[in-house]
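Collaborator request log, item 7. Partner lab (contact: R.S.) asked for a structural prediction of Adenylosuccinate synthetase to inform their binding assays.
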Amino acid sequence: MANVAVIGAQWGDEGKGKIVDWLAERADVVVRFQGGHNAGHTLVVGEKVYKLSLLPSGIVRGTPSVIGNGVVLDPWALKAEVEKLRGQGVEVTPDTLKIADTCPLILPFHRDLDGLREDASGSGKIGTTRRGIGPAYEDKVGRRAIRVCDLAHLDDLGPQLDRLAAHHDALRAGFGEPPIDRAALVEELREIAGFVLPFAEPVWRMLHEARGRGRRILFEGAQGVLLDIDHGTYPFVTSSNTVAGTAAAGTGLGPNAVGFVLGIAKAYTTRVGSGPFPTEQDNETGERLGTRGHEFGTVTGRKRRCGWLDAVLLRQSAAVSGITGIALTKIDVLDGFETVSICTGYRLRGETLDYYPSNAQDQAAVEPVYETMPGWSESTAGARSWADLPAQAIKYIRRIEELIQCPVALVSTSPERDDTILVRDPFAD
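Returned to partner:
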């Protein structure tokens, strides 16, 4: 049986939560491998709705869940999320949740810096969630990070605090902020350490053992490929690699452990925050997509920008992330459109492109080339087989497959877990 990596194939918010929940029931372990608590997943299980930002989606079903070393961890956000889930009747214990002891911590001054930078950036705003994720990754790469394992050695933090203060105090002074209060920081960490440390261990050992025993591992990505720090619409991206290859480095398993790569994509396109969006429909069509699709960010509550499916970007995502099959979500949102459009290429200063350019100015300047198809008036909501779909909806899906050069492995037709058309079982490979 294959392991499965689930990643967003667009700008995030593609409906990964439902798909991961659907797969998690058959997985033996679910592991998050990058990102922070800026990545929201909404799970609908029966009558209950769970909104997760940091915890792996498998946690609500009791599937052993792991936060890998590629994640940056806000310990206070972790505590709040665990307590919220416990209030909804979900048991979260060291038996069901493991946290890599090498995860870098997101600290209060990371959140401060994130907000101060955004406020000072004017038209250059990235549109971050202001939760400190970017500054925490910077400290990781800058070899200044305090990690989960350090919570057990708080009396020995002097050299790390020296490195942190040398960097951050200068930045804070530039914004008119006082230096880091080192004593207060250590006390805050001491207070939270007792909550975090019972979950902490070298998770790579547990994952290697699980793999050796033939256990099914589900790798859960956050955000989407178009927000990848290397392959996304830079600089309007997140601070980590979101492609499937990161599942290896972000967990301590080798690249041949990743298995089937399932890319999640909406039947249209959305984006939260700033940055280029070639197929955006800032008009009645966009409003209709947003209203029907309930397009508001899980973490921020921000209204998502909406537009037609961009097959060029989706093909690019599939290529750079090695996507094996696409899970196409929210096809039901397109019900009732007289016509539907797909972007098949771009025009840039008289030239036709079949890829998205790298330069930010070129990205903002491209004009989409559309192919328009007849829509369908029948409902696809709740369909669970091809026979339940209108003929035009099937033609639309098949055309997407042709354009992105990647097969559709499953189709989601509502937020309900069982409203899914399975074409190819990712775990069966």
